[in-house]
Amino acid sequence: MATADSDSNSSNTNTTSVSMKLLVDSTRGKVLFAEASKDVVDFLFTLLSLPVGTVIRLLSKDGMVGSLGKLYESVENLDDTYLQPNLNKNMLLEPKATVAGANILPLLTNDVDSNAKKFYMCSYCSNRSISNVHGTRCPDCNHGHMSNEVTYVSPAPTVARPSEGGYVKGVVTYMVMDDLEVKPMSTISSIAMLNKFNVKEVGALEEKVVNLGMEEGLKLLKASLETSTVLTKVFLGNKKA
C-alpha cells in the first residue's frame, strides 16, 4: 500500500499521510482487521516510543484520562525559582524522542522532528560542554546559557545493505487487528481471521480505504489508551467501541 500525499490545496500544513485498507463486517459495524504497509506499522510502533510528556502535550492535558494532565499542568505553572539550576522545564514538557520511526511522527504533529539532532554550547564561555536543550544554564561558568547551536554530523553510512529506516521491513504486507495487534499478512492468516470471527456471509464484508494524517493519528493515539476496538472507534465512529 503506497504512501499518499494529502491534497496540496489543503489548509493543513502537514502533508504527510499514509493509507491502509480496512475489512469491515457491515452487519456488526466492526473492523475485523486492516491491511497495512510498512509505513503504517512503523507509525503504530512509534507510539510506543513517545515519552509520556509528549503524549500529554499532543492530546492536550485537559483531554487526558486520569491525573497525568494535572501533573503536566503543575510543571507548566511551577515557577523556575523552584527548579534545579541546570534544569529546563521543556525537558519534562517537551521531551525529545529519538526513534527509528521518526519519519512517521509528522502524522501526529509537524513540530516533532526527532531526526533533527541539535546541540548547543555556552554563549558566554569557551567550555566544551554541550546540551541538547536550548537555554540550559552552563554548568561550567554558571553565567551563560547553552544557546550557540553546533552542527551534529552523522556517522558515514557503511557500504553494507542500505536500511529502509523505521522498524519493520517493507517487503511484506501486515495485518493490523482492531486492538492494534500487528502480524505479517498472508492468505492463510486472512482466512483464519474470518473463521475466528465466525463470518458466515462474505457478502457482508466491505473494504474501506482510509488515510492516516495528523487528525487520524491523534485519534488513534487517544483511542489506544481508552479501548481495545481502536480501528472501529476511529474509522467507523462507533460510540460503543
TrEMBL record:
Task: Note the InterPro entries from the entry.
Answer: DUF674 (IPR007750)
Q: What is this protein called?
A: DUF674 domain-containing protein
Q: Species name for this entry?
A: Prunus persica
Phylogenetic placement of the source organism: Eukaryota, Viridiplantae, Streptophyta, Embryophyta, Tracheophyta
